[in-house]
Structure formats: C-alpha cells, structure tokens
Amino acid sequence: MAESFNGLFKAELIRRYGPWKGMDDVELATLEYLDWYNHRRLHTACGDIPPAEYEAIYYRHQQAALTAAQTK
C-alpha cells in the first residue's frame, strides 16, 4: 500500500508541479498535499466523504456503542 501511495504522490504532486527550487518548497507542497488527501479529498469507498471525516464518524459510533454496552 505504501508503494501505491508513493507512486500516486509522485504522479500527482512531484512530477506535475516540479521542478522544485529546493527542499523547503517540496516539504511545504507535501504538507499541503497530505492535508488535502486526508481532509478534503472525496473518497468513493468512504461514501464520498473525506477520509478524516469518515474516521471521526467511525470512532464516534464506536464510542456510542461502548457507552451503550456499559449502561446495560
């Protein structure tokens, strides 16, 4: 899976927007890309919501189920 993400990262960011002036530019672009990838990208496997939102919903449901189980 890491190899797949690495290839996607290179294709979508590094090769598309290069050449880069220096490592600082690459680091800033990487942070912006990861923010988009996790917080704004709509993912079809997650019901067309961003992965971070999907994860938050999952953990809220897990916590609610745990609380309900403890009150029984």
TrEMBL record:
Residues 2-51 form the Integrase catalytic domain. GO terms for biological process: DNA integration. InterPro entries: Integrase_cat-core (IPR001584), RNaseH-like_sf (IPR012337). Coiled coil: none annotated. It comes from the Bacteria. SUPFAM superfamilies: Ribonuclease H-like. Signal peptide: none annotated. This is Transposase. It comes from Microbispora oryzae. The lineage of its organism: Bacteria, Bacillati, Actinomycetota, Actinomycetes, Streptosporangiales.
